[in-house]
Structures are given as C-alpha cells and as structure tokens.
Automatic annotation (TrEMBL):
<dbReference type="InterPro" id="IPR023696">
    <property type="entry name" value="Ureohydrolase_dom_sf"/>
</dbReference>
<dbReference type="InterPro" id="IPR023801">
    <property type="entry name" value="His_deacetylse_dom"/>
</dbReference>
<keyword id="KW-0378">Hydrolase</keyword>
<dbReference type="InterPro" id="IPR044150">
    <property type="entry name" value="HDAC_classIV"/>
</dbReference>
<comment type="similarity">
    <text>Belongs to the histone deacetylase family.</text>
</comment>
<dbReference type="GO" id="GO:0016787">
    <property type="term" value="F:hydrolase activity"/>
</dbReference>
<dbReference type="GO" id="GO:0004407">
    <property type="term" value="F:histone deacetylase activity"/>
</dbReference>
<dbReference type="GO" id="GO:0040029">
    <property type="term" value="P:epigenetic regulation of gene expression"/>
</dbReference>
<protein>
    <submittedName>
        <fullName>Histone deacetylase</fullName>
    </submittedName>
</protein>
<feature type="domain" description="Histone deacetylase">
    <location>
        <begin position="6"/>
        <end position="267"/>
    </location>
</feature>
<dbReference type="InterPro" id="IPR000286">
    <property type="entry name" value="HDACs"/>
</dbReference>
<dbReference type="Pfam" id="PF00850">
    <property type="entry name" value="Hist_deacetyl"/>
</dbReference>
<dbReference type="InterPro" id="IPR037138">
    <property type="entry name" value="His_deacetylse_dom_sf"/>
</dbReference>
Length: 280
C-alpha cells in the first residue's frame, strides 16, 4: 500500500525524525519464521507452491516479490523489537500482519510479523511474559491461533464484532465491539480492560498492533472513532508501557479511509504520541 511509503516521508517532512532514526532490515530466515509458523506452510510459501485455495484465502496472487516483501516486514519487526528492548519503544512503519496463523495465510497476510518477533524474543530469553495488544478493527485471529496454548505469550484483541474475520479465534482476551461505537465508550472499555490485563499478566514486553481502521472515515471499519479518539487510544497504550517501564514494539496495521491523508495522519499521530511520552 502507498501509505507505507508516505508514512516515513511524512515523518521526515514534519521533522519528527531524521534519516538516522530509520533502519533497513534484511529478509527473515526460514528458521526464524518457523518459530511461529508451521514448517510445511513456510516451505510451500517460500517455494511459491501454495495451493490455489490458500492463495485465494490470502487474497494476493502469489509472487516472489510479495513473499520477499513479507520476509522484510517480519525481520523489520524483529529488529524493531530489539531496538524497543534497548530504547523503550520502536516502530515498524509497515507490519501488523495479524491474520496469518500457524499454518495459514489470510486477509492479505502471509506471515505474522509480531507473532514471529514475539516468538523470537521468548525463545532467546529476551522476554519472558509478552502481551500482544491488537486494536485493529479486525480481530487478530492469526495471532490468537498461533498462541492459543502458549503459557507466556498473551493476546488481547478489541475489534468489530461483525467485521472480518467472520469466524473468530479465541484470544486470551477478546472485546467485541458493536457497529458505530464512539470515542467515549471505546476508550472507557479499553482503559478498564487494559489496566486489568497489565495487572494480571505483568508483561515484560508489549507488542502493539495500532491499526487505524477504527476511524469513522474508514470504508471497512464500521466504527465511529474520531482522529482524536485514535490519538487518545495510542497515548493510553504508550503511557501504560512508559509508566511501567515495559518496552513496546509497534506495527502499523490496517487503514482504509478513502482519503489517504486521513490514514497517514492517524499513523503519524501514533509516532507523535510516542515522541511526546518518551521525550525523544
């Protein structure tokens, strides 16, 4: 999507970052991907041998450039997580491919970047209790599928109840939302459940999928959240992590407003919130 080119360009244009703040990842290796995904699925994907049914489920024609793009995204989120561990917060300007499950791709997601990165941190003993917060309008079904039986990686999804995917997985905690929910009720729900989750799980690392398809302008979202509501959502997540001294990695997730400016500005708002809270 064009937004993944516009986000870094806008960050530079507004002077929020300098070129030295960016890094360019390599492609993730098969061994690393298989920390979160089924080896047979990964082999079929990397060799471009997925069956036609799976290709339809993903929604993109399968190609080498598409697979390579996904490998770069996954490695970008791993490196971003390592930077977050070092500096407190870090972003992947793409990512949030949360519909890819253990042995399937779905909804334009081939591999699950945050699930692989969480598995990497856990397997390398960099983090011992991980919370994945998914506030995209669509349930993080793939992430829930991957970690459904994991004892130390917990998934939280707050999403449109009547939106894609229509068959939901079971996250550690799911909060289904009715169509048309507005800022006040949305933020109150998030505040209550967020506090409970942090107290109960006591994570030492957080991944945040910050989709902006909850915007009232989004053509797929069905919710009624203002741009100010999205900013307050992001501030709530970031402030909680900052106050508790928990590193947080952020991937962008979805956004489908007809006006690309609405999408980019909402994502830029997440960066602004981090810069303000972490005093960068």
């Amino acid at each position: 999507m064009v937004k993944y080119e516009l986000i870094p360009a806008q960050l530079l244009y507004e002077g929020l970052v300098v070129p030295e703040n960016f890094f360019e990842p390599q492609r993730a290796s098969k061994d690393v991907i298989c920390l979160a995904h089924c080896e047979a699925y990964v082999e079929s994907l990397l060799s471009l041998q997925l069956d036609a049914k799976m290709v339809r489920r993903i929604g993109f024609p399968l190609s080498r450039s598409l697979v390579d793009r996904e490998l770069y995204i996954v490695e970008g989120t791993i490196q971003s997580a390592l930077y977050a561990h070092q500096f407190g917060v870090s972003f992947n300007t793409a990512g949030g491919t949360h519909h890819a499950g253990f042995d399937f791709g779905e909804g334009f997601c081939l591999l699950n970047d945050q699930a692989v990165a969480a598995s990497y941190l856990y397997s390398h003993h960099i983090a011992n209790r991980i919370l994945i917060i998914d506030l995209d309008v669509h349930q993080g079904n793939g992430t829930a599928h991957i970690f459904q039986n994991h004892a130390a990686i917990f998934t939280f999804s707050m999403h449109g109840d009547k939106n894609f995917p229509f068959v939901k997985e079971h996250s550690y905690l799911d909060i289904p939302l009715g169509d048309g929910i507005s800022d006040e009720k949305y933020l109150a729900l998030l505040r209550r459940h967020l506090h409970h989750l942090f107290e109960e799980i006591d994570p030492d690392f957080v991944f945040y999928q910050g989709g902006v398809d909850i915007l009232e302008t989004d053509k797929l979202g069905k919710l009624n959240i203002s741009s100010q509501g999205v900013r307050k959502r992001d501030q709530m997540i970031l402030q909680e992590c900052f106050d508790r001294k928990i590193p947080i990695q952020i991937s962008m997730g979805g956004g489908y407003s007809p006006n690309i400016k609405d999408i980019v500005n909402a994502h830029i708002g997440t960066f602004r919130a981090a810069i303000d809270i972490y005093n960068f």
